[in-house]
Amino acid sequence: MTEPHDIAEAAPLPLTLGWEEWVSLPDLGLPALRAKVDTGARTSALHAFDIESFGSATRPRVRFTVHPIPGREDLVIPCSAEIIDRREVTSSNGETELRYVIQSKLLINGVDWPVELTLTDRRTMAARMLLGRQALGERVTVAPAERFCQPKLNYDVYHTTKIAQSAPRRALRVAVLSRETNFSTGRLVEEGEARGHSVEVIDTARCYMAINALAPEVYYDGKRLPRYDAVIPRIGASITSYGTAIMRQFETIGTYCVNGSQGITASRDKLYAHQLMAKAKIGMPVTAFASSPKDTSNLIGLVGSAPLIVKLLESTQGKGVVLAETKKAAESVIDAFRGLKANFLVQQFVKEAAGEDIRCLVIDGKVVASMKRTGAEGDFRSNLHRGGSATAIRITKEERDTAIRAAKTFGLGLAGVDLLRSDDGPKVLEVNSSPGLEGIEKASKKNIAGMLFDAIELKVRPAPVRRRKADSGAES
C-alpha cells in the first residue's frame, strides 16, 4: 500500500495526470480519495453531506461529513473548514446549485498546493472528488486517455488508528449548558474559540424537548438546536432534575457529553453518592442517615463521638453544612433540620484535616491539577466561595488513585474530587460534576480549560472501521 506521506521525494513538475487519479486532502483528514480529472469543468468539487455553516459572521466556517469509500456509508469522516465564498455552480447536466467554497491543500505524489473546492453531494459518483482546470494550473498536464499516471493509494488507511492519530484538529461545535455568566463559562468559551471552535452558551432552563422514537430533538427559543459535536454541562443544583433530563435528550441524539446524566444525578444526591462510593470501597468519612426522629441518638452513635458534621443532602459550596461540637449541639441541629423537613447526613469530623481539604481535578481519567484549600479563620469549611484560600499541592499516589476511582465510579469525564487527609488514608468528601475552574487554574497555573478541550477533541476524532474484502480500492 502506498500512502501520501511515504513518498521520499516530490515528483518533478509538471505532474502528468490521467483522467482518474488518487489524491490526498491532508488539511481535511482525507488521506486517500479517487478523483476524476475534468478539464471541461472550471471548479473542483468534493463529496460532502450534512453540510452546516457555523461560527461568527466575521469568520464563518462550514462543517460537513464525507464518505471517502464508495458504498461504505458506515465510514464517516467529519471535516470543517473556513468558508471563502458561496457561489452558484452549474453541473454537466445543467442543474445550478449554490455551494459553499473552501480551500484545502491537495497532495499528489509528494507535491502539494492549495485548491478551492465546492461542497456537494457526489454519493452516486465513483469518484468522491472532481478536479477542475482552475485547480490544475501550470503544475499539471493532463493525458485524457490515461488513468492512474501517479502512484495509487489505498483505502486501508481508513481502517487503522493512523487516521485518528493524524487527523487535523477540526473546528467543533460545542454547547455549554449554563445559566450563569461566570469565570468557568467564560474560560470555556475563550479557550474553545481560541482553538477555532464554535462555543455556544445555552441557558438550560430555556431548552425544551421533542420526545419521540424517530426524531428526538432539543429546542431553544423556538428553534431546533443544531447537531453539536460535544456538550459541556454546567448545570446548577437548583435545576438538576430538568438539566439532567436535557442531558438525557442529548445522549439519545448521540451527542458526546463530557458528563452524562446519570453521573450528574448521582453526584448531586449525597446519600446515593456515598452509597456508590462505599460499594466501590472508596475511603470516606463514616456516614449515617436516618428518617425517624426516634433514631437521633443511634444515628450519632453510628458516626462516633462529637464533634461531627451535619450536612443537608442538597448542600452546595459549603451551605447547609454544620459542625456540631457536642452531642447536645448535634441533637439540636438534627431536630432543627427535621423540623424543616430537610434531608441530611450525619458524618464523622476528621480532626486531623484541620480545616483543610484537597481538590483534585480529574479529566478523562487523569488528575490534571490539585490544590489545597484552607478555610477562612474560624471556619472549618474550606470552600473558596466562603472565603477560603487555595495553593497548589503535590498529592500522593494513593490520593491520585482515590480521586481517579471516585470520578470513574460516577462515570464523569470532568470531576472535582474533594479529599481529606486522615490518619488512615485519603477520604473523599464529595465528587463535584460541575467544578469551578477559577480557583484551580489560578492555584495550579495550568490551562485546565485547554486540557478539557484536548480530551473533547480526542473523543470526537473519527474512528477506524472494520475492513471489508472489497475495500482495497487500488484496483486498476
Automatic annotation (TrEMBL):
The lineage of its organism: Bacteria, Pseudomonadati, Pseudomonadota, Alphaproteobacteria, Rhodobacterales. InterPro entries: Asp_endopeptidase (IPR008503), ATP-grasp (IPR011761), ATP-grasp_RimK-type (IPR013651), ATP_grasp_subdomain_1 (IPR013815), Peptidase_aspartic_dom_sf (IPR021109), Rimk_N (IPR041107), Rp_bS6_RimK/Lys_biosynth_LsyX (IPR004666). GO terms for molecular function: ATP binding; metal ion binding; ribosomal S6-glutamic acid ligase activity. In the C-terminal section; belongs to the RimK family. PROSITE patterns: ATP_GRASP. GO terms for biological process: SOS response; translation. It comes from the Bacteria. Gene3D superfamilies: 3.40.50.20, Acid Proteases, ATP-grasp fold, A domain, ATP-grasp fold, B domain. Residues 274-457 form the ATP-grasp domain. NCBIfam families: PRK10446.1, rimK_fam. Keywords: ATP-binding, Ligase, Magnesium, Manganese, Metal-binding, Nucleotide-binding, Protein biosynthesis, Ribonucleoprotein, Ribosomal protein. It comes from Donghicola tyrosinivorans. Its cofactor is Mg(2+); Mn(2+). GO terms for cellular component: cytoplasm; ribosome. This is Probable alpha-L-glutamate ligase.
